[in-house]
Structures are given as C-alpha cells and as structure tokens.
Design a protein that fits this description.
Elements: E1 12-15, H1 20-30, E2 36-39, H2 55-70, E3 74-83, H3 104-117, E4 127-137, E5 143-154, E6 170-172, H4 184-190, H5 192-204
Parallel strand pairs: 1-2, 1-3
Antiparallel strand pairs: 3-4, 4-5, 5-6
Helix pairs in contact: 4-5
C-alpha cells in the first residue's frame, strides 16, 4: 500500500462529509485510535457534485476534492440502501430521495411505496442491504478503497430515533430491532460502515492500530 496513505495515532484526518450523523459515527470510530477528525464542512470545503454512477466513483470524487482543497489526507464515505425488490434502488441516490432540505421520513415513505407497488408483502420480499464504500485520498490524488455491507430487511412503520437516514426501517440480519432502535455502540460493531472501517483500519493503521 502507498506509504502516503498511512495514518498514525496523533494524526488528523479530513472527512469529506457535511452529514452530522456520519461525522458522529466517524468520530466514534476514530477516537479510540487517537486520530482527530475534521469534517469538510468545518474546513470550509463545499460538497462536490456527485456525478459518479457507482459508490466507488462518488466516494473518490469527494475524497479527492477534500484532500486537494485541504492538503490533508481525506476520507470519503459513499453509502446507501439497496433494496432487492426495487432493483437496488435507491442505491447511490439514497440521499437524493430525501430531497432538499433532507427529509428521510419522506425517503423511507418512498421506499415503502415502492415495496407496496412491487407486492413485497413478506419480510423475505423486503430484503435490503446497506452498502458503504470508503475512499482514502492524499493531496496528490492517490486513492484506496474499502467496502462493507450489512444485509437485513425493511419494516414499516419506522422505529427508533437513535440512528439517521434509513436506519429506523432497517432490521439487520440476526436482530429484531432496527438500526434506529439499536444502541449506537452495538450498531457501530455490525454496520456497513463499521465493516468497511475494519478493513480500512487494518490496511491504513496496521495491526497494532498505532500505524507503526
């Protein structure tokens, strides 16, 4: 792996997000590693237009834009909900389904309308997965990708207020509660973002989590 894409305890990292929910999750993940996190919003970096057709392409756009603007290593997350009965939608358009300003109850309602239109009446017909692609970029444009997925099923009406986005309608496999009802520390251990982050940590910080 490119040595310029390594981190050590005590380093700081720019996270290419204006989403406060994502920022909280990243700070929870990085705090035990001794790495401080600043968001693109805090650094005055605007959100680039997400013109990619895949999670990887959009994550790269955001990471490279933030690294170039700040001169720092930058980590971007492109993630979304892929619903089997909807042909993988909303997918990379998950945030856009929430409109401007973001209203994720509206987005969840659109998913539910789509499931009803598809005749997805049973839990097995309501399969979905959260997908997360992380992209780490340096100011020279070198990048590395890490991917995580969390499979589950969708319920209605939404339940819980602890998560964000589509969390209140998503029940991960092996659990009876939604991500919106789940304790944040438990969610961090099994989420799509946590799974991508585990690969990121092993590659970028090394096995001893100190970066040495």
């Amino acid at each position: 792996m490119d040595a310029s894409l390594r981190l050590r305890s005590g380093d700081s990292l720019a996270v290419a997000t204006h989403n406060q929910g994502k920022l909280r999750e990243f700070r929870d993940l990085f705090e035990p590693l001794g790495i401080s996190v600043l968001s693109a919003a805090e650094l005055g970096v605007p959100e680039p237009e997400e013109t990619g057709e895949t999670f990887e392409e959009n994550a790269r756009l955001k990471a490279v834009a933030t690294a170039t603007a700040t001169g720092k290593l930058a980590l971007a997350d492109d993630s979304g909900l892929a619903v089997e009965a909807l042909g993988g939608a909303p997918g990379i358009h998950s945030a856009r389904w929430a409109g401007e300003p973001r209203d994720f109850y509206r987005a969840m309602a659109l998913v539910e309308e789509g499931l009803k239109a598809a005749g997805a009446a049973t839990l097995e017909a309501r399969r979905a997965e959260f997908v997360c692609v992380l992209c780490l970029a340096n100011p020279a444009g070198a990048v590395q990708f890490f991917k995580g997925m969390a499979p589950g099923q969708l319920v209605w009406p939404p339940r819980g207020t602890k998560g964000f986005g589509y969390d209140p309608m998503f029940v991960p496999d092996g659990y009876s509660v939604t991500f919106g009802e789940m304790d944040p520390l438990k969610k961090h251990a099994i989420s799509h973002r946590a799974r991508a982050f585990a690969d990121f940590r092993a590659a970028v910080l090394g096995s001893d989590e100190s970066g040495r």
